[in-house]
Structure formats: structure tokens, C-alpha cells
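Researcher: We plan to redesign the surface later, but first we want a full-length starting point. C-alpha cells attached.
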């Protein structure tokens, strides 16, 4: 990590801030709250904003970032913006269309990072989750390597400065990396990652290939959310995490985030509460000991909070 700028270098020579602000919001949350939260996050110091076409909040994020640029808080070059192309745009001829939809709503000419959101192509159309008469998701027979070639063209066109993937396993990522004629390798793989799911094998593989691992849900997730598996223990209430936090005079959330940074993983913190935003950003002025890291590694249960099957199968 570049300690001065709190960022890591990607394989294409660009830099990504090691702590990002996640913007996914449940449907019941007013869109205006997303806009307010992004403005607060920028004021707190976040410069890495993570979103996706699927989140349906590009317009709000665009207004927030435009306002903070207009008032002089940040310049465009200060903001690292990530978006994701959704599965209904995975046909090569549709990839750029999907990205440009986001760009128009964001009021941006480019994003800093564009990801393949999920390694499953879906039937093109306006439905995010197209289903047949039996309620089964309708996939699309598109090769991920073909989608990746279209992503490369988006990079070459300057619409995305860097490109990567999200929710890919070892084999899916390797398929892209081994693609004949690969022009631009994925700079990162964004996956669910926290002490209960530390992704150690995937992290080792990604590191060996110079692919950065980016962690979403690094603090776990709340079971009340529709896409989260029920009856899972709350990560931030774990006694081991709590004891380490108490030892350092920190919160369990700060320790969970610091854990990822010391593993050379980029972490995406999501909270729309201003005080927690500030707390989550205060992870650069303390260090976990090797013993702390070993204890946190020991919490791994290979436990996913995100229930992909609830909406994709």
C-alpha cells in the first residue's frame, strides 16, 4: 500500500484507494438518502465509490459527485468510481450499451473501473432477472470470454480506465486469464469477503496472478435484508473480534476493515450513518499484530451471507 495516498497499484499502472464506499441500498430506502450518503462519504474522505447498474442509483450518485466537484471539495481525478455491467448486457454487442447507460446517469465520460458483475449471462431485456413461466431464471448462452473481449474494447475506447470481474471463482477467473489473445487482464476480482469467509485460497490464487482482491460485505451483513441468508451469526458481535477491538481501543468494524487492508485486500465499507462512516474511515492509524491476524484467520467458517440462489436460481 502507498501509505501517503492509501491506495494500491493495479497491474495496468493505475491506482485504487484501499478503502471504498459501497452504495447498494435496499428498495425501501429513499433514493435521496443515497445521494446524501455519497456527499457525506466524500466529505468524510472516501474517494473510492463503488456501485453497479443493478443498484439503480446511478443518477443519485451522479448528482452527489457532481455537486461535490462543483463546490470544490474534489476534482474528477480525485474520485475513483467503480461500476458493473449486469448479466442482461453480456452479449458482446451489448456490453458497451450497458456501460454507457450508467455513464449517462452518472454524468461522467468514463469510469475508473468497470466489472463483469456476476459470471452468469442473462436473457437481454429490461428485466434485471428475466424468468420463464415457471419462475426460473432465463440464462443466455454467452461465453464469458466473449464478454471479456467487449470489456477490453470499452477500455480501449476510454469508457473504463480499468476492467475487472466480480463474484468469479478460481476456475472462472482462470478461464479469462488463459484466454487466447488476452489483451487486458482483469485487474481485480470483487467478492464477498470477511473473517467468516476469508477467501484465503482465492486470495492466494489472485495474488499469484497479480489480480487484486476487493472485499464486499467486509463487515458481514444484516439478516433482515432479502438477499441475505437467514439465521447466520452477526460478524460484528463475534467475541474474538470484540476482544481484539477492545485491546486496540477500536470498534469491531474497524478491526474487520483493518484485517482486510493488512491482507492487501481492498475493502468496501457500506453505512449510510454519518458517524459509522467516520468510524469506518479511521482504520489507517493502528496496526493489528501477527497474533491478531492469526486469531482473525481462525474465525473462517466459509460462510456466505449473500444468498445468490435466492435471486439467480
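Model: Full-length starting sequence:
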Amino acid at each position: 500500500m502507498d501509505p501517503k495516498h492509501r491506495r494500491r497499484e493495479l497491474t495496468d499502472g493505475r491506482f485504487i484507494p484501499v478503502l471504498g464506499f459501497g452504495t447498494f441500498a435496499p428498495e425501501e430506502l429513499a433514493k435521496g438518502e443515497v445521494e446524501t450518503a455519497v456527499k457525506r462519504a466524500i466529505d468524510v474522505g472516501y474517494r473510492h465509490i463503488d456501485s453497479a447498474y443493478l443498484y439503480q442509483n446511478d443518477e443519485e450518485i451522479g448528482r452527489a459527485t457532481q455537486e461535490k466537484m462543483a463546490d470544490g471539495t474534489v476534482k474528477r481525478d480525485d474520485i475513483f468510481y467503480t461500476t458493473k455491467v449486469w448479466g442482461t448486457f453480456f452479449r458482446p454487442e451489448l456490453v458497451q450499451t450497458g456501460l454507457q447507460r450508467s455513464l449517462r446517469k452518472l454524468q461522467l465520460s468514463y469510469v475508473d473501473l468497470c466489472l463483469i458483475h456476476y459470471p452468469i449471462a442473462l436473457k437481454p431485456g429490461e428485466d434485471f432477472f428475466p424468468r420463464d413461466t415457471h419462475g426460473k431464471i432465463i440464462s443466455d448462452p454467452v461465453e464469458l470470454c466473449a464478454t471479456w473481449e467487449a470489456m477490453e474494447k470499452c477500455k480501449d475506447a476510454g469508457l473504463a480506465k480499468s476492467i475487472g470481474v466480480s463474484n468469479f471463482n478460481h476456475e472462472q477467473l482462470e478461464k479469462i486469464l488463459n484466454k487466447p489473445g488476452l489483451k487486458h487482464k482483469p485487474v481485480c476480482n470483487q467478492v464477498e469477503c470477511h473473517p467468516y469467509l476469508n477467501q484465503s485460497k482465492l486470495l492466494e490464487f489472485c495474488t499469484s496472478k497479480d489480480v487484486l482482491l476487493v472485499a464486499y460485505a467486509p463487515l458481514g451483513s444484516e439478516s433482515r435484508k432479502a438477499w441475505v441468508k437467514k439465521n447466520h451469526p452477526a460478524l460484528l458481535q463475534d467475541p474474538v473480534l470484540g476482544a481484539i477491538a477492545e485491546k486496540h481501543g477500536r470498534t469491531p468494524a474497524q478491526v474487520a476493515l483493518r484485517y482486510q487492508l493488512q491482507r492487501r485486500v481492498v475493502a468496501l465499507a457500506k453505512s449510510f450513518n454519518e458517524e459509522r462512516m467516520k468510524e469506518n474511515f479511521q482504520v489507517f492509524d493502528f496496526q493489528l499484530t501477527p497474533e491478531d491476524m492469526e486469531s482473525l484467520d481462525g474465525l473462517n467458517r466459509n460462510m456466505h451471507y449473500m444468498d445468490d440462489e435466492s435471486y439467480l436460481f
